[in-house]
Design brief:
- It is a single chain.
- The chain is globular, with a radius of gyration of 14 Å.
- By secondary structure, the chain is α/β, with parallel strands linked by helices.
- Helix 2 runs parallel beside helix 3.
- Helix 3 links the parallel strand 7 and strand 8.
- The protein has one domain: 3-Layer(aba) Sandwich (Rossmann fold).
- The strands form two sheets. Strands 1, 2, 5, 6, 7 and 8 form a six-stranded mixed β-sheet that branches. Strands 3-4 form a two-stranded antiparallel ribbon.
- The N and C termini lie close together (about 5 Å).
- Bound molecules: flavin mononucleotide.
- Flavin mononucleotide binds next to helix 1, strand 5 and strand 7.
Length: about 160
Amino acid sequence: MKIGIVVYSQTGNTMQVAEKLNEALTASGHAAVVERITAEQENTKDGVKVTLTHAPDASAYDMIYFAAPVHAFSLCPVMKTYLQAMDTLNGKQVACFVTQHFPKAWMGGNHAMRQMRDAIQKKGGSVVASGIVNWSAKTREAQIGHVVAELATASPVQV
Ligand SMILES: Cc1cc2nc3c(=O)[nH]c(=O)nc-3n(C[C@H](O)[C@H](O)[C@H](O)COP(=O)(O)O)c2cc1C
């Protein structure tokens, strides 16, 4: 089973969690590949066209993790653009997480997660697990541990 972790990360927080997820998957005998989405513009507002400079090919994987930051109380425009532009996710297991600065999920994380789930489901993907990391929360490290553990055990199909 091929597992991909497809990440957009502007300042490194989301990538840090993705690397921990990769370590957890490796420790449990899975081989995952971390791929980074890149774009010409980093700080785009909703509605402004994003040009992707690297859009990982999700068709290569049986299970895919998508990860991105919250921007302006929403899923960041780069991940939105990537998910809208990608091919089908039919038959794939998908899990996802977002990171956000504010300490509570209702401060953008929940909305971004709903947008991410909707975009994945529109492509035919089935979301088996998701998580939110609140970067400025005192419990951040515990949250990261919890999200990583949940997501790493989300795949019902073992390698
Ligand atoms: C343009 C922009 C808008 C942001 N808007 C929000 C927001 O609405 N709510 C929030 O909690 N954090 C917000 N953040 C903070 C990021 O979500 C947070 O720092 C995240 O962990 C960054 O992930 P990254 O390092 O992978 O890019 C924003 C950051 C940027 C650059």
